[in-house]
Amino acid sequence: MMHLTDWTNSVVEVLNKPAGSPQLQALSAWLRRLSVVDHFVLFVYEGSYRPLSLFNTFSAEQRCIFIDEYQTGPYLLDPFYLASQPSQAEGVYSMRQLAPDQFYKSEYFQTYYHHLGLSEEVGFFMNLSPDTHAVLSLMRRRGRMKFHDDEVRQLESAVPVVNAAVRAAWEASRKEAVRSVDDHDHRVQEAFANFGRGLLTDREREVVRLLLQGHSSLSIAQKLRISPATVKVHRKNLYEKLGIGSQSGLLALFVQAIKGDASGSLVNAGK
Fold first, then answer.
1. In this structure, what CATH number is given to the domain that contains residue 244?
2. Is residue 168 located within the same domain as residue 191?
3. Is the pLDDT of residue 122 over 70?
4. Which of 16, 58, 204, 269 sits in a 20 to 30 Å window from 223, CA-based?
């Protein structure tokens, strides 16, 4: 833990850096003095635009999966994204606080976290405007200890500094370039909203969405106010209609749908 003088001097050093990447790089180095962190990524979720990554510390291979692939649509299943829609109260939250009960066993986790060797994540949540929200994620690789409560509390003391740096980066980004109309994600969001339409009942589509997000049968039953046995019947029926036998097959169909092959993949799945 830093002494007060060191803390003050290091904060001044961070905030004196130019807004954007230089300041965020200094911020990440400063946060590493408070807690063990393997990777950082800052996403801004603005209205119907696809997520914008303002900063990350991934390798090129990791960026391909966790940023490029993520931005094509799988972000719609991310607990941090879901928590920001509508806005989460500003502060520091762990993935374990926000994720569904079976998230760590879900196909989404296996594909977008486990594949990169990541196992733990906390996020600084910030509301930049009524429809724009930012999350700075701090990630630990597999094998590390989880973030303990005292670490989270120490990170909470850094909220004002993180907020200042992230807001400055966002303002600098807006001045540099206006986001293109092509960057809107209406098609992906509509594909997600319509996933399974025409093959599945409305209730089955609700079950699909919750399964993809990482909810167990019990959690789905509680959310939909039905029995776990009824959830299992719905799951069996929707698997048969979609021509799949597992959640990995369900995730594969979902990814096809949000990438523009929604009609073909789902129609063929039912045959």
1. 1.10.10.10
2. no
3. yes
4. 269
In Å, what is the CA distance from 164 to each residue of 35, 160, 167, 198, 246?
A: 19, 6, 5, 47, 45
Residue of 21, 23, 28, 17 lying closest to 158 (CA atoms): 28
pLDDT at 162 over 80: yes
**Residue range 232-249, pLDDT digits in tens:** 999 999 999 999 999 999
Helix or strand run (H / E) with residue 133: strand 132-141
Question: Beta strand 39-46 with 118-129: parallel, antiparallel or unpaired?
Answer: unpaired
Which of 31, 39, 40 minimizes the C-alpha distance to 2? 31
| CA gap 152, 81 in Å, rounded | 20
Instruction: Give the end of a domain, one of 143, 162, 183.
Output: 183
pLDDT at 117: 84
pLDDT for the residue 192: 85
Give me 133's structure tokens.
Answer: 């929200």
Tell me what the mean pLDDT of segment 218-234 comes to.
97
pLDDT digits (tens, 9 = 90+) for 195-206: 999 999 999 999
Residue that has been written with the tokens 């005292």 in this structure: 150
Residue 193 CA to residue 176 CA, distance in Å, equals 33
- Round to whole Å and give the CA distance between 188 and 260: 8
Cβ–Cβ under 8 Å, residues 211 and 180 = no
Indicate the pTM of the whole model: 0.88
Whichever domain contains 155, its CATH number is 3.30.450.80
Shared domain for 203 and 161, answered yes or no, is no
Encoded tokens for 153: 């509390």
Cβ–Cβ < 8 Å for 208, 266:
no
Q: What are phi and psi of 216, to 5 degrees?
A: -80, 170
On whether both 174 and 194 belong to a single domain, the answer is no
Token pair recorded at residue 93: 């939250």
- 111 with 164, same domain: the answer is yes
